[in-house]
Amino acid sequence: MNQRLFLLVFLATVFTSAAMPVFAQTPAAKQSGYTLITPDLLRPHLKFLASDELEGRETAKRGQKIAARYIATQFERLGLKPFGDSGTYFQKFSVTEQKIGGGSKFVIASKPKRGSKVETTVNSSFLEDFYFFPRGFGITGDSVKGAVVFLGYGINDLKTYKYSDYSGLDVKGKIVVVMAGEPQAQSKESVFNGDQPTRWSNWATKRTAAIDAGAAAVLMVNDLGGLPFLPQQVEPLRDVMMSGTMSLVGSSSAKEIRPESRVQGTPLIFISSALANQVLKSTGKTVDALQKGMEKNGRPASFEIAGVSLTIAIDFQKKILETENVCGLLEGSDEKLKDELIVYTGHYDHLGITDSGVINNGADDDGSGTTAVIALAEAFARNGERPKRSILFMTVAGEEKGLLGSKYYTDHPKWPLEKTVADFNIDMVGRIDPKYDALKNPNYVYVIGSDKISKELDELLQKQNKETVNLTLDYTYNDENDPNRFYYRSDHYNFAKNGIPIIFFFNGTHADYHKPTDDVEKINFDKMSLITRLAFSVGWETANRANGLKKNAAQP
User: Fold this and answer.
1) For all residues of the chain together, what is the average pLDDT?
2) Is the per-residue pLDDT at 165 higher than 90?
3) Are residues 54 and 143 both part of a single domain?
4) In angstroms, rounded to a whole number, what is the distance separating the alpha carbons of residues 148 and 303?
5) I want to staple 139 with a disulfide (CB 3.0 to 4.6 A). Which of 17, 263, 267, 382 is the partner?
6) What is the pLDDT of residues 232-284, one digit of tens each?
7) Is the pLDDT of residue 3 over 60?
């Protein structure tokens, strides 16, 4: 680290210390820590973390390293015990960065009834004819090959909707071509018509169905009906995809981070209708015509493309990089209960710098959660009374690349997972989403996962909310059928999949989500301080209760 980097951290730390008010400790066990959490405490941290000097905090890059040193400096200032590797605050891990080169190929091999096999290499380019998301949904190998099945909308749900595009077809080991969306969604007679799309509108559900049927790969056509190839929700991720994907070095495909991507060797690749038509060429049909036919008669129209196989070879350029989680421990005060752990998490990485040189500062995502974790460490460390159980304050890297830092921690825990009582994850808590902006109500929080493993935890949350900040607790995204699948998309999930009760605090997405316009000037610090106070109160009560959290009989 050069002198400028050290100077940045030093000045930010001095500024933060000077800006924090000093409160007299009160007799109430948690009152002094609770009242420390104010907009004035939060603002200096976030102004530094979301500044241009940190270059968007992309995992394993210079700005992320500066952020890590800054957070560690805060933990040291507060007297937290270093809980990383070798007496430091850093839990280091290695990642493989993969970028897409220009040599990717789609090779169609067709064998007519008479004559020899003909191979055709289709001219295709990344983000023009095909793309796939990072976050663990890419291909771990370099190629996939198989016969091809056109599978309509990729729906397999005879039980609920009496509809299956899979009926009578064996897709095991084959590449399936599916269309985005649902059939006859605008028809009043259709089972898929309604105010809200069903779970089959979600590409992850379609991919899971294909995995369950043994497909080798899923090609999803998403530009039918006049829709752009890169829809609005994907456009902000163009730079993320161009910057490359990451995976943990040495991770096994058997240890996937989400149920919908549990077989990483089954890629989901979005393709243009033009590329799909090249695959269908020998049939004399186009994907647009097939869709129109299905819309007209309301029935599946799946078939295997006779005599055709497809080889997809992705040109990956790979290198190994080093990164780190930042871990600070506050030991509990009770001789017996201090062996049990509460964890606060927030991811301090973001998207870095765009291809065009614009910085994604990530103030809300997740500078806000990282700042909240630092403020929570401040509140607990300076509280008049220490909690009975121990508390780990951990900011993780690699969330934007696939929840990598939290996965590494739960695969290599610094504290036994069986002694970990709960994880409270804070990801995007500084803005107001369109729903609540229209309601003119900034004082809300989306609560996700609080009842999935322990209903007792959810009851504790509701009680603490009522007694303290009295926010609107919105459980919209807690619905298992919610197509956004937020429960699987932040760092709490790696704790939840290990049976640890969690709460995910979230303010919803907004127009600046994953854009360079996610800046600190747009943060609502009053709202952010209320959510942080609620997280403090829930953590305090969990850390001091006589017994651990009772888990539900049925786990998700």
Assistant:
1) 88
2) yes
3) no
4) 9
5) 267
6) 666 666 666 677 788 899 764 333 334 333 345 588 899 999 999 999 999 99
7) no
- Residue 483 and residue 366 share a domain: yes
Whether residue 538 sits in one domain with residue 451 = yes
CB atoms within 10 A of CB 399: 28
Q: Which residues contact 379 (CB under 8 A, 6 or more apart)?
A: 33, 34, 36, 37, 536
Over residues 114-130, the pLDDT tens digits come to 666 778 888 788 878 88
Looking at the predicted structure, is the pLDDT value of residue 154 above 70? yes
For the ranges 166-175, 182-191, 195-204, 377-386, which has the lowest average pLDDT? 182-191
Look up residue 259 and give its DSSP letter: G
The H-or-E segment that residue 353 falls in is: strand 352-353
Of 254, 285, 314, the residue at which a domain comes to its end is 314
| Element at 16 (helix H, strand E) | helix 3-19
DSSP tag of 367: I
Q: Which domain, by its residues, includes 245?
A: 102-314
Give CA–CA dist 180/230, Å, rounded.
Answer: 13
Residue 554: inside a domain: no
Q: Does residue 481 lie in a domain region?
A: yes
**Separation CA 373–CA 277 (nearest Å):** 50
- Sign, CA torsion 521/527/529/531: negative
- The CATH number that applies at residue 502 is 3.40.630.10
DSSP 379-444: HHHTSSS--SSEEEEEEES-GGGTSHHHHHHHHS-SS-GGGEEEEEEE---SS--HHHHHTT---E
Kindly state whether residue 549 falls inside one of the protein's structural domains. no
pLDDT in tens, 469-484: 999 999 999 999 898 9
Last residue of a domain, one of 314, 349, 378: 314
Q: What CATH number should be reported for the domain holding residue 224?
A: 3.50.30.30
451, 457 Cβ separation under 8 angstroms: yes
What are the angstrom distances between the C-alpha of 503 and each of 189, 234, 376, 456, 555?
40, 27, 15, 12, 15
- Domain tally for the chain? 2
Do 268 and 356 have their domain in common? no
Residue at 106 is within a domain:
yes
Pair 172, 268 in one domain: yes
Q: What element of type H or E holds 75?
A: helix 62-77
Q: Are residues 381 and 497 in the same domain?
A: yes
Residues 6 or more apart whose CB falls under 8 angstroms from that of 326 comprise: 68, 71, 72, 75, 84, 89, 90, 91, 348, 394, 395
Q: Which is nearest to 323 in space by CA: 134, 70, 57?
A: 57
The arithmetic mean of pLDDT across residues 411-437, rounded, is 99
Measured CA to CA, the distance from residue 550 to residue 453 in angstroms comes to: 9
Co-location of 430 and 474 in the same domain: yes
Cis status, amide bond into 366, omega within 30 of 0: yes
Amino acid symbol at 289: A
> Could you write out the DSSP letters of every residue in 456-482?
HHHHHHHHHHHHTT--EEE-GGG-TT-
The pLDDT value given to residue 113? 67
